[in-house]
Amino acid sequence: MEPKFEVLPPGAPRPQKSFFQNLWGWVVAGVIAIAKFKFLIFGALKTSLSMLLMIWTYSWFFGWKFAAGFVFLIFVHEMGHVIAAKWLGMPVSAPLFIPFIGASIIMKQSPRDAWTEALMAYGGPLAGCIGSWICWGIALQLGESWVMAVASTSFLINLFNMIPVPPLDGGRICAAVSPWFWIIGLLLLGASVAYFHAWNSIVIIVLVLIVAFPRMKQTLFGQPTEEMQAYYNTHISNRLSMALMYLGLIAALLLGYWDASSHLSYLMDQN
């Protein structure tokens, strides 16, 4: 038996669906959209809510303007990681903000090699440095001390992240140059204890050491496996390139922190 089709003449009115049929169609379409884009929706919700929580928390200590500007620049830093990860084809989670600890993204798969890990790590402080310099320029134009304070603090936080100890960005960047730079990073991490006097900085440093110790022990003093040797077998040209990129970014951050701190002192005296 052949199927029968009803052919409507041109201009004939089409049958109208009831309200409940239209409503059900929209519900089904919404469920399909949520199922398809649930990671994007939930990720954006997680990031925005944790950002608001961090802004609210910091506002009690530093005022809402500084808190909002500082958290936004942390967001810029994290989005640098996300963009680099997307460019490298590595799936990552949306940024999660934790007051007095910072923010982080989670890699959903391990990097192919130390070079890939270094490039993804480099994206964060690079974006943070650019954002800090833009904030510095805005502070000069407006003459607002709190904007310059945001820039100065952002330069400093990104500098701390460049210490060559995993899981800090600097440690993952230097993994592509030589993991032995992690020993220097331990010394710099110890020196940062004397520089930072706030209790939360000590907590962060302890957490970094807890996470860093197993990888440092396995990589530097453990029995090397073929997979490990292949992972850190970076071409000499890439090693030199990453070393120059690393030193250049540190120089830009140091210059920014020094200049922003100088202008901040001047602006505070003027006010």
Quick gist of this model?
The chain is an all-alpha fold. It has 9 helices and 2 strands.
Report on this structure.
This protein has helices at residues 19-62, 64-88, 114-142, 145-161, 169-174, 181-195, 199-221, 226-231, 236-270, and strands at 96-98, 102-104. The protein is mainly alpha-helical and 271 residues long. Helix 3 packs parallel to helix 9 and helix 4 runs antiparallel to helix 9. The chain starts with 18 loop residues before the first helix and ends with a helix. Residues 1-8 have low confidence and may be disordered.
Individual helix count = 9
**What does the overall shape look like?**
globular
**Distance between the ends:** 90 Å
Strand order in space, largest sheet = 1-2
Quaternary status: single chain
Broad structural category: mainly alpha
Look at the structure and give the mean pLDDT.
83
- Give the number of DSSP strands: 2
Write the layout of secondary structure elements.
Elements: H1 19-62, H2 64-88, E1 96-98, E2 102-104, H3 114-142, H4 145-161, H5 169-174, H6 181-195, H7 199-221, H8 226-231, H9 236-270
Helix pairs in contact: 1-2, 2-3, 2-4, 3-4, 3-9, 4-9
